[in-house]
Amino acid sequence: QVQLVESGGGLVQAGGSLRLSCAASGRSFSTYYMAWFRQAPGKEREFVANIRWRDGITLYADSVKGRFTISRDNAKNTVYLQMNSLKPEDTGVYYCNYGNNWGQGTQVTVSS
Fold it and tell me: Which of 5, 40, 59, 84 could form a disulfide with 92 if both were Cys (CB 3.0 to 4.6 A apart)?
């Protein structure tokens, strides 16, 4: 059973930064992808970024390119999402994902 635990959300002003963490446990994560998704109030969950565990290849949604950076620490089985130049439209619950497994989510609120 894979467990994903997110942390690092909070309230920040527009233009600020936050770093989210996702600690993964329950199996070996040497293959496959880890990803971040987000869901704003009244909207569907959307892809934000992913990283291939094996070699660190990354992919970003157009809306966050150049502002967000996804990274991983293999030794800690942890994935990070560094979010800079935050905008009010980045507000939402951010979820860590691995295959069919989801974390509980962490709230990010960006005030204007």
Answer: 40
Question: 22: which 2 tokens?
Answer: 């996702």
For the chain, give the longest Cα–Cα distance.
41
Specify the amino acid at residue 98: Y
The H or E element that residue 22 is part of is strand 18-25
Structural tokens at position 57: 């290849």
CA-closest candidate to residue 18, choices 92, 89, 81, 90: 81
pLDDT of the residue at 104: 96
In what helix (H) or strand (E) does residue 47 lie, and over which residues does it extend?
A: strand 46-52
Percent of residues, the chain, with pLDDT higher than 90: 84
pLDDT tens-digit readout, 47-96: 999 999 889 999 999 999 999 999 999 889 999 999 999 999 999 999 99
